Amino acid sequence: MNAFGSIELEMLWASAALGLLQIVIAVAAGVPSVGLPWAMGPRDEPPTPVSKFAARLDRALKNFIETFAFFAVAILVANALGRHTSMTAIGAVLYFWCRAAYVPAYALGIPVVRTMLWFGAVVGIVFELIGVYPGI
Fold first, then answer.
1. CA-CA distance, 76 to 81, in Å (whole number)?
2. Alpha carbon 98 to chain centroid distance?
């Protein structure tokens, strides 16, 4: 056991922190393109296009948000049921590290690696769900 009670809860916390970090870096990368007055204003007009790098960071963030809810639910169900197995631990670690590596891979435009990392994170969620399911 660790300070979080389980590796799964630790990876949930780390993934939430990763998501917050992605928000910060995506915004920071986009502000130079759209300008600080637009970013701090009411945003009534559409922004100017952002750089490819900033757009990739924004898409990586949106992709994280698409998967995080499934991961979080799987972790919370495992915790509520007290089902912490090697499969749930591997799934949680796999999800976090694949998502962490996904950000620079996407930002740098590395297509095959990016896709493999996305797939690895999805496999992590699947491991979590299988590990939690009764009788498996």
1. 8
2. 9
